[in-house]
Structure prediction request, 122 residues.
Amino acid sequence: VQLQAFGGGLVKAGGSLRLSCAASGGTFSNTAMAWFRQAPGKERVFVAGIRWYGSTYYEDSVKGRFTISRGNAWNPVYLEMNSLKPDDTAVYYCAVSKEDIVRRVRGGYDYWGQGTQVTVSS
Prediction:
């Protein structure tokens, strides 16, 4: 299965973006999905995750601003980002686990998409 994140771009602080994750070559069932991000010179870190039946989990700095949701088989997961801040600038990656468990570490996911750049200007 191939994943591709898209929807990034350049936005001013306070603005919004919606990221999508496109899947090809297969579909997912009873799996958890997540978004991670990697800022320049930093490690890739957990942003948000969602279990198959909809339980959601967020990194503290994005709570109340970001919303993760499930889509369809071809676009299985979205990330709605509001009230963006310059600190949100990073490459964002979607990830899928073979298990229905949201883990906050990279090793908890089996499939990764190509990232999409989000840049927030002040």
The first strand starts at residue 2 and ends at 6. The two ends are 37 Å apart (CA to CA). The chain has no helices and eleven strands.
